[in-house]
Write a structure and sequence with these properties.
This protein is α+β, with helices and mostly antiparallel strands and 243 residues long. The protein contains 8 helices and 13 strands. A 9-stranded mixed sheet has the order 1-2-3-4-5-13-12-11-10.
Length: 243
């Protein structure tokens, strides 16, 4: 496990990056999801040290801020546990089934869970230079049969430790990649791709851009998509799939 929580004695080292990263992500979330500053204030818990992690790639350190559900995803294998406990809730072409399984596994019920998670569930990553900020949302929207964009969307191209499905539908081409260390390894690869790779194409979209990368994982080549907001200088993960 490459992710670890920040120790109390390490907190002073990361104070200089904690506030600007938190403010950038909160401003972005407010603009995209919320109508008033008053509502975003209820999510100031992002500054709690329990919601911050560090990890390294090739001896380079990265700093991650995440909500409580992504903490469960990273540290408690909540998706794997849900898919084992409630296998009939996965690969059903109904995203709500997956959210129900997560709720049941966590042992707590969130009203309007889909909308809540769309707005608030994410992991944001940067390095100590803060030249790039990556935001991986759980999903952008819920369509009729699948999650659109984001982490739960891309899992349709993967299978977990015991070949279990981890989202609502499978890749129609059945071009799976078995990755037993989902989801932490996938987050590491997405981070490595953006921070250390070079885009093969940059596509303008209104005032923003889509960045497309090739990335090799386990000897297989994947295509990775990011949406870049020029207003907030944030890269948002869209998807990753086999080529």
């Amino acid at each position: 496990m490459n992710f670890r929580k920040i120790k109390q004695e390490e907190e002073s080292k990361y104070l200089e990056i904690r506030r600007p990263l938190g403010e950038k992500i909160l401003s972005f979330m407010e603009d995209v999801h919320y109508k008033t500053k008053k509502r975003i204030n209820s999510y100031q818990s992002v500054y709690a040290w329990d919601n911050w992690s560090i990890f390294d790639i090739d001896n380079k350190e990265y700093f991650a801020m995440h909500d409580y559900l992504f903490s469960h995803i990273l540290y408690d294998d909540i998706l794997e546990k849900a898919s084992i406990a409630y296998p009939k809730h996965f690969n059903t072409s109904n995203p709500e089934d997956v959210l129900t399984a997560i709720n049941l596994t966590r042992g707590r019920k969130i009203v309007n869970m889909g909308e809540w998670l769309r707005q608030t569930s994410y992991i944001a990553v940067t390095d100590m230079s803060m030249k790039k900020v990556l935001k991986i949302g759980l999903f952008r929207n819920i369509d009729k049969i699948e999650f659109s964009s984001g982490f739960l969307h891309c899992l349709k191209h993967f299978k977990g430790k015991n070949n279990q499905y981890l989202t609502s539908i499978t890749n129609s081409k059945k071009k799976f990649y078995n990755q037993p260390e989902l989801p932490s390894t996938l987050i590491l690869c997405i981070t490595d791709c953006l921070f250390n790779g070079a885009p093969k194409s940059i596509i303008p979209f209104n005032d923003d851009y889509t960045y497309v990368y090739d990335y090799v994982m386990g000897g297989k080549t994947f295509e990775v998509h990011f949406y870049y907001s020029t207003k907030f200088d944030v890269y948002m993960f869209s998807t990753i799939h086999r080529i």
